[in-house]
């Protein structure tokens, strides 16, 4: 099994740690405004208050911590320290790419950075799909260049998820529009239903919004915190529960939320059983991605597989039967003995 070099992974760990601290003020470095704090249920939360084209807005920074206070002090002392941090993060990303790790495609990276800037990952947004699989590969120290790359940016969110600060929101349509890349909302079959996808005419690049399906529902669900509608998808609640933080590697890297690798693998096996026979290539890719992730986890983090399996089993025998059926059909090892 090919592995990313140890020194490169040390750099990745450093970049992940620094991004986690820097993320709180990355999107406000060039904005005029002032800092403020709120006390909610005996906990202090920091905000940055500014004027945007749509009016006055408070941008959530995070709960009170030594690192947040340090970054606020640096920002109050002038923007040069923040810009120096940005340059340092870009240098770290360049060193990782020099170590042989390919970045996310430029157009997709630009979209993901803008979504991160808008706060979607702070309000429960999770990257899924092929781009998440690629990011997972780097996070686990295994290059993912042998799999076909789509140009879909799949963003999932659960409208029922609890967040620490109830009034925190993002605006996905506004973020996509601000890119000025020519995105338009893709009409659904029923014109009465809101769009859940954004595409560019003449290109394969698109952004799809997804949410867990409730009791077989098929109509789009409006996610208030994203100010956008999302298409319901079966089994998605398991995939995006308790996501992890990872680095989206690009010229300007950013912190994103992605599924736990073991849950990603289990979900791919389940989805493979839901595929129509006419999309055999997609079914094959589902199983390949699942099998490759499980192979890494068996060597490095076998406990993760057990935890993901236990969480799956709690959802009922239908879920585990689909995983078993997928493994038997593809002639690959079961996740757990």
What is the strand and helix layout of this fold?
Blueprint: H1 6-26, E1 33-40, E2 43-52, E3 55-63, H2 66-76, H3 80-98, H4 106-118, E4 126-128, H5 129-140, E5 152-156, H6 172-178, E6 183-185, E7 197-200, E8 206-212, E9 221-223, E10 228-233, H7 236-240, E11 244-248, E12 254-258, H8 261-274, H9 280-300, H10 302-313, H11 317-330
Parallel strand pairs: 5-8, 8-10
Antiparallel strand pairs: 1-2, 2-3, 4-5, 6-7, 7-8, 9-10, 11-12
Question: Care to describe what's here?
Answer:
The protein has 337 residues and is of the alpha+beta class. It has two domains: 6-259, no CATH class; 260-337. It contains eleven helices and twelve strands. Strands 4, 5, 6, 7, 8, 9 and 10 form a seven-stranded mixed sheet that branches. The longest helix has 21 residues, at 6-26. The two termini are 22 Å apart. The model has no long low-confidence stretch (mean pLDDT 88).
């Amino acid at each position: 099994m090919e592995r990313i070099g140890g020194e490169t992974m040390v750099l990745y760990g450093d970049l992940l740690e620094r991004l986690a601290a820097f993320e709180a003020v990355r999107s406000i470095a060039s904005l005029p405004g002032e800092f403020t704090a709120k006390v909610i249920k005996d906990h202090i939360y920091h905000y940055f208050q500014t004027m945007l084209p749509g009016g006055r807005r408070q941008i959530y920074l995070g709960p009170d911590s030594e690192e947040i206070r340090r970054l606020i002090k640096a920002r109050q002392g002038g923007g040069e320290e923040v810009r120096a941090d940005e340059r340092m993060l870009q240098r770290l990303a360049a060193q990782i790419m020099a170590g042989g790790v390919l970045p996310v495609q430029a157009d997709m990276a630009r979209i993901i950075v803008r979504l991160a800037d808008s706060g979607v990952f702070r309000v429960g947004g999770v990257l899924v799909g092929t781009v998440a699989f690629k990011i997972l590969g780097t996070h686990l120290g295994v290059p993912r260049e042998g799999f076909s790359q789509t140009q879909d940016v799949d963003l999932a969110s659960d409208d029922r998820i609890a967040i620490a600060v109830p009034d925190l929101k993002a605006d996905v349509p506004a973020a996509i529009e601000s890119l000025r890349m020519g995105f338009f909302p893709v009409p659904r079959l029923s014109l009465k239903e809101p769009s859940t996808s954004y595409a560019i005419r003449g290109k394969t690049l698109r952004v799809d919004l997804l949410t867990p399906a409730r009791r077989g529902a098929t109509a789009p669900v409006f996610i208030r915190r994203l100010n956008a509608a999302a298409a319901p998808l079966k089994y998605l609640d398991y995939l995006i529960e308790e996501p992890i933080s990872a680095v989206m590697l690009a010229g300007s890297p950013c912190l994103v939320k992605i599924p736990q690798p073991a849950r990603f693998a289990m979900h791919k096996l389940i989805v493979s059983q839901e595929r129509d026979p006419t999309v055999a290539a997609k079914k094959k890719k589902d199983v390949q991605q699942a099998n490759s992730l499980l192979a890494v986890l068996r060597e490095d983090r076998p406990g993760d597989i057990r935890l993901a399996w236990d969480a799956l089993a709690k959802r009922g025998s239908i879920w585990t039967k689909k995983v078993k059926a997928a493994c038997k059909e593809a002639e690959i090892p079961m996740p757990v003995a």
